């Protein structure tokens, strides 16, 4: 079982899109995948058709509730996808967490307890809010690795050092084994010179941390959530589907290799 926090404090870089579609692509490999929506905006939940009225057991309960929420099966065409949705309760969680003695460890403890016993899931993907707040820290403390979507635009690298500093701090104080799963360039326009230049710069700066596969800007990807579908279900042969499938293969390979030689950041 592998827990991956999908984090970047910038909004609109493709965290939610990557959580949903990487999850669906891993499920295509017969992996059992649990998505945890840790963003109070609840876009992962909405994008998979979980209506607000059917969000009775949520990520808020996972952090601060008395009962462990039961993951919901996602009812789209994809196999092997479950979700713990978010509702608006989560908006106040950051403040409530500050008052808590184990404020950074609540998600970790919840997942290591009842929730993930007996290897129910192969992958747990946590969609983080656009902030380096306590929700994101909880995700990083609970996770084996952080996957960072980076939008292929001029300011792509801006803010990344702050994110890396948070990862270092989490390693020092709470989770020494935390790796960087990888950095994935999103919304890239490969015919555009600027996009190419950004990719070259990012690869020069970050080297092997950057996934080979790049997610292109693809309108089908942005349409899928309004039909409550993943891109793989909505348009299986689209460029977007191909890209998320290729990303899933890289993620699977990285684990295989990391398992063999302890590689990683
Ligand atoms: P975040 O979760 O980081 O805020 P989202 O995943 O919600 O970012 O993406 C922001 C917006 O960009 C959404 O409207 C989403 O549909 C769109 N989007 C994300 N990735 C792509 C892509 N590869 N091509 C086109 N649109 C995309
Ligand atoms: Mg989001």
TrEMBL record:
Pfam families: AAA_31. Residues 1-180 form the AAA domain. CDD domains: ParAB_family (cd02042). It comes from the Bacteria. Involved in chromosome partition. Localize to both poles of the predivisional cell following completion of DNA replication. This is Chromosome partitioning protein ParA.
């Amino acid at each position: 079982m592998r827990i991956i926090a999908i984090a970047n404090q910038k909004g609109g870089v493709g965290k939610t899109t990557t959580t949903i579609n990487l999850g669906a692509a891993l499920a295509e490999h017969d992996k059992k995948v649990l998505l945890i929506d840790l963003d109070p905006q609840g876009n992962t939940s909405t994008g998979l058709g979980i209506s607000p009225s059917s969000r009775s057991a949520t990520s808020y309960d996972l952090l601060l509730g008395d009962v462990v929420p039961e993951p919901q099966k996602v009812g789209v065409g994809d196999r092997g996808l479950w979700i713990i949705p978010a509702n608006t309760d989560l908006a106040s969680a950051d403040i409530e967490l500050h008052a808590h003695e184990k404020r950074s460890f609540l998600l970790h403890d919840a997942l290591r307890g009842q929730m993930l016993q007996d290897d129910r899931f192969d992958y747990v993907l946590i969609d983080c809010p656009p902030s380096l707040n306590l929700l994101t820290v909880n995700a990083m403390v609970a996770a084996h690795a952080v996957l960072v979507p980076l939008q292929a635009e001029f300011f792509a690298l801006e803010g990344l050092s702050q994110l890396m500093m948070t990862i270092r701090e989490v390693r020092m104080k709470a989770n020494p084994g935390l790796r960087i799963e990888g950095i994935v360039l999103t919304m890239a326009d490969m015919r555009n010179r600027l996009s190419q230049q950004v990719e070259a710069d990012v690869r020069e700066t970050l080297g092997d941390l950057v996934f080979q596969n790049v997610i292109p800007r693809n309108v089908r990807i942005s349409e899928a959530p309004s039909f409550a579908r993943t891109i793989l279900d909505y348009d299986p042969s689209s460029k977007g589907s191909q890209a998320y499938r290729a990303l899933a293969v890289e993620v699977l390979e990285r684990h295989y290799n990391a398992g063999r030689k302890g590689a990683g950041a």
